[in-house]
Amino acid sequence: MPTIITPFGVIETLPGVEYFPDGSVRSCIPSRACPLTTPLGPLVPQFTANTLRKRQLPAMTFHPNGMLRNVPLEDQTAVPTPVGPVPAEQVTFYSCGALRRVFPLNGTLNGYWTQQDETTLAAPLALDTPAGPVEALFISLNFNPQGGLRSLTLWPGSTLDVPSPLGNIAARIGVSFFDSGALSSLEPACPVPVPTPLGSILAYDPDAIGICGDSNSLRFRENGSLLALKTTAHAFDVTLENGRVRRLNPPLRRNPCDGERLEAAPLTLEFGGGRVSIRTPDTARISAASSDVTAAPFHPPLPVLGAVCAMGAGKW
Q1: What gap in Å lies between CA 58 and CA 119, rounded to an integer?
Q2: Phi and psi at residue 190, to the nearest 5°
Q3: What is the pLDDT of residues 224-271, one digit of tens each?
Q4: SS (H, E, C) the chain
Q5: CA 114 – CA 110 distance, rounded (Å)
């Protein structure tokens, strides 16, 4: 079996090691237990795949400078983080060696191991965050190179009450922070009224994907002012330079599950400098002075699927 010598220890690997053009290792799969001395302490990369939830051997990867990049772990291991010890089955690093992400669980979903099965292994984590203490189920924690908490990705079905410039808001999927610790974005768990230059707008993104909480639909500037939101509850009349009025409605689409019901796709609104930019899902964009845009409730011609607020919010 190939043997790789790294600054973190010797790794006996399976065939198929990948290299960068300069000959340094890009990725490899350990063939046996190879404890490594890492910035987080001793870690054992995954070398077996003999359970329903771990039927594959993921590769561990390196940065071009030789620093560890991604390390799937053989067993869940408590690792030190800037917000306290966190159980981990996968960790990633920046090229400088600083911790980037921690994944408490790393099971592979398949026909034999479902999300519900993985959920039974998830345990709430109590963390100190820039917005105060929090306890919830998390998919991952993301840190900046200086050690500040950059984002939290919530487990499907989990929500949090997040203190924001608009007051406490129930969030799902994720919450992100500026390096200063100020709130950068969150994903509303249900439609929430947001004061804007156009009046109160119900912010909610039915298309939000719960994979990563780094960037969410309700966004703020570092000073707390509103930057952007998504909505399906409003249409907008925009007075153009030629005096004509253009109506922008949330586009209707067939529900992909049954092909019969209609649902509204969200419009994206961005605010700044006395102007508002409105973007449709197909990336068409129109920008105008806020004073030239009027919001109105959106009344679709046929019933549209409504958004249901998630239940069981965690507490900050």
Answers
A1: 21
A2: -155, 165
A3: 999 999 999 999 999 998 999 999 999 998 877 776 778 889 999 999
A4: CCEEEECCEEEEECCCCEECCCCCEEEECECCCCCEEECCEEECECCCCCCCCCCCCCCEEECCCCCEEEEEEEEEEEECCCCCCEEEEEEEECCCCCEEEEECCCCCCCCCCCHHHHHCCCCCEEEEECCEEEEECEEEEEECCCCCEEEEEECCCCEEEEEECCEEEEEEEEEEECCCCCEEEEEECCCEEEEECCEEEEECCCCCCCCCCCCCCEEECCCCCEEEEEECCEEEEEECCCCCEEEECCCEEECCCCCCCEEECCEEEEEECCEEEEECCCCCEEEEEHHHEEEEECCCCCCECCCCCCCCEECC
A5: 6
Can you give the pTM of this predicted structure?
0.90
Give the whole-angstrom CA distance, residue 218 versus residue 272.
14
Phi, psi of 290, deg, nearest 5: -55, -35
Among 210, 169, 197, which Cα is nearest to 269's? 197
Q: CA–CA separation, 265 vs 233, rounded Å?
A: 10
Which residue(s) pair with 159 in the sheet?
A: 172, 313
| Joined tokens for residue 60 | 């561990």
Residue pointed to by tokens 């649902």: 263
Q: In sequence order, which residues have a C-beta less than 8 Å from that of residue 224 and are 6 or more positions away?
A: 165, 182, 183
CA 293 to chain centre: 31
Residue 307 has pLDDT above 70, yes or no: no
Q: Using CB atoms within 10 A of its CB, is residue 300 exposed (0-12), middle (13-18) or buried (19+)?
A: middle
**Domain range annotation of the chain:** 3-117, 124-308
**pLDDT tens-place string over residues 155-186:** 999 999 999 999 999 999 999 999 999 999 99
Over range 19-47, report the average pLDDT. Answer: 96
